[in-house]
């Protein structure tokens, strides 16, 4: 029997960098999404929508990189906590990963169904995922909007839980994601 790799005490630099890169992008994209829905049609709104799409595609790409990294690198064991908190943390992480896939895909599907091709960074034309179909576009628009509200709630709960662990429980849950060990 082969010896098992030791379980790390902290997260790798790559894991921490991916976490905070995705976190910053998601928070920015959520803010952009809420702001742009209230903007009147204008060149500025079109630019914000374009940046929002670019950010969404970047999150989608980072989702795959992050998922692959997580599959190939062990994560540190959870710190001691109540079983319900461990289940809640597992559920929260599963929901976060699911939404990091659903949100960009639903936005891309919405653009495709609306007949607006996504051109990443004005350089790479991405394929339309579905044919132009305004009725289907409305469905994907609703999914994307509802997903944005759901993702806002999940991210907020995730952040509040991290702050609770840091300031109330005074454990290392948050600190483990603020520092990293060598690769």
Task: Please give the structural blueprint.
Layout: H1 13-37, H2 43-72, H3 83-113, E1 119-120, E2 124-125, H4 134-167, H5 175-178
Antiparallel strand pairs: 1-2
Helix pairs in contact: 1-2, 2-3, 3-4
Strand content: under 5%
Low-confidence stretches: none
* H and E string: HHHEEHH
- State the end-to-end distance: 25 Å
> Largest beta sheet: what is the strand line-up?
1-2
**Global shape:** elongated
Describe the protein's architecture and organization.
With 183 residues, the chain is mostly helical. It has one domain (13-178). The chain contains five helices and two strands. A hairpin with a 3-residue loop joins strand 1 (119-120) and strand 2. Helix 1 (13-37) packs antiparallel against helix 2, helix 2 crosses helix 3 and helix 3 runs antiparallel to helix 4. The mean pLDDT is 93.
Key traits:
about 180 residues, mainly alpha, two-stranded antiparallel ribbon
